[in-house]
Amino acid sequence: MLYFAYGSNLHHFQMKRRCKDSVFLKKINLKNFKLTFRSKYRAADIEPKKNSIVPGGLFEISKSDEKKLDIYEDFPILYKKYYFLYYGKEVMTYTMIKKTSFRFPTDRYLNIVKRGYKDCKLDLNFLRKALSN
Questions:
Q1: Domain span at residue 99?
Q2: What's the pTM?
């Protein structure tokens, strides 16, 4: 199945450790969404926003990878699954259930996300913009 990562799962080493079958395919943009950080975990989330994009990584993952991600993402308590079409193919990602206010991420978490942006060759300006909320 196809999975869209936009936070710490962009980090290739971490993603491989978490999901052994995962294969990074390419970078893509999720349209009409914006990146933010929230909850007591100060983790990445996406929310609808017209004419905005969230850059991320498209991964191929197995069923067992999905189960591991469900546990890591605290599905269905913290995150729910969101599906969208990318060139006619269904892609799964996670989005937080409770849309709490913006919380600046911890340095440790932010560094993992930044490393992921480098791994996937994403534009860091999108991350800077999300942090300047």
A1: 2-127
A2: 0.97
